[in-house]
Amino acid sequence: MSQLANQYGAINLSQGFPNFPVDEQLLQISERLLRENIHQYTPMAGLPSLLEKIAKLTLLHYQRKINSITEIVVTAGATQGIYTAINTFVNKGEEVIILDPSYDSYEPSVLMAGGVPVRISLNDDYSPDFNRIEAALSTKTKMIIVNNPHNPTGRIWTDAEFEAFELLLEKHPQVLILGDEVYEYISFSHPHISFHTRPKLIDRTIIASSFGKSLHVTGWKVGYLIAPEKLMTEIKNVHQFLVFSVNSLSQHVISDYLDVVDFNAISKMYLQKRDLFRQLIKDSRFELLPCDGTYFQLMSYRNISTHNDVDFSRELVTKHGVAAIPLSVFYKDGTDNKVLRFCFAKTDKTLIAAAEKLNRI
Fold first, then answer.
1. Which segments constitute the Aminotransferase class I/classII large domain (predicted)?
2. Inter-residue contact 246 to 76 (CB < 8 Å)
3. pTM (predicted TM-score)
4. Fewer Cβ neighbours under 10 Å: the N or C end of the chain?
């Protein structure tokens, strides 16, 4: 869709990355450190100062005390972390439950490990369907992936849903959890509930986080995994020969930047953008769906067209000058509910211009 947007000169609200400048403080730190002697390999698991600050960040936001030496690894983006976690623990023929609509890297990572992806659709309101999940769980199940806050829907799990999940997994102690929490610092309607705060699950959970998403530097490709030492030891064995270590400059810069950045301000900034976009669109023919977190807004075009979502998204670019992502591509079975995903991690000017075009449809 980004390529199509470039071809037709459309406003790109499809791919999930910000188009506004990064924090000036981050640039100043980058410029200062660039000329220092920091351009060789860092330790395999990550820059020690960065690992320590990740541990402090986790304690501050989730009241979870973790060992910076034995329970964290810095990865070349969360996607590499997710791939590493899956390929560390999933063996040939073992099953991994994926909740659809889902991020597109999950299934290929499972297939590369020789595993079997088991795709299960969420409910119509994008809440977890625990009856379907329970029916899919078996002795072959090795892992279940939970993305929260959720891309592409923007939904956040409730405490009651976590409790139901905990009861369900008590019956299947062999199942590991991969918690994809890359949008953890972007929540609106209610606070993000992290696996970090679930003592019944934490001993078998690997949590993926992303500085790229949290700090608006997606191109730096820096993320991290947190897991109990017994799991992290095995993860590092794979990480060492897959990446060895993440680029040193980014790690040093982020380490220093964590001393000054306010993660609460990040959520407030995206809340303002969400509310601006929703206000601009509210009188259009599109139907706004709930958005609890992330920087994605789902909109139904059911009142506009009967075309399938792929065709309508192409028409949106070629005829109306705005690019979005059709939701069906996030489903294994191509479920089409006439819904598109729009990214509002854009400048106010971009959002206003896009809304003007959408309101004319």
1. 11-357
2. yes
3. 0.96
4. C
CB atoms within 10 A of CB 349: 10
Domain holding 340, by residue range, is 2-22+263-359
State whether 146 and 56 are in the same domain: yes
- Residue 106 inside a domain? The answer is yes
User: What pLDDT digit, counting tens, does each position of 29-86 carry?
Assistant: 999 999 999 999 999 999 999 999 999 999 999 999 999 999 999 999 999 999 999 9
User: Domain tally for the chain?
Assistant: 2
As to burial, measured by CB atoms within 10 angstroms (0-12 exposed, 13-18 middle, 19+ buried), residue 88 is: buried
Tell me the DSSP string of 313-330: HHHHHHHHSEE-EEGGGG
What is the distance of C-alpha 184 from the center of its chain? 8
Backbone φ and ψ for 186, nearest 5 degrees, come out as -130, 85
Judgement on whether residues 188 and 251 belong to the same structural domain of the protein: yes
- CATH code, 249: 3.40.640.10
Contact predicate 323/9, CB 8 Å: no
Q: Which two tokens stand for residue 114?
A: 């020789």
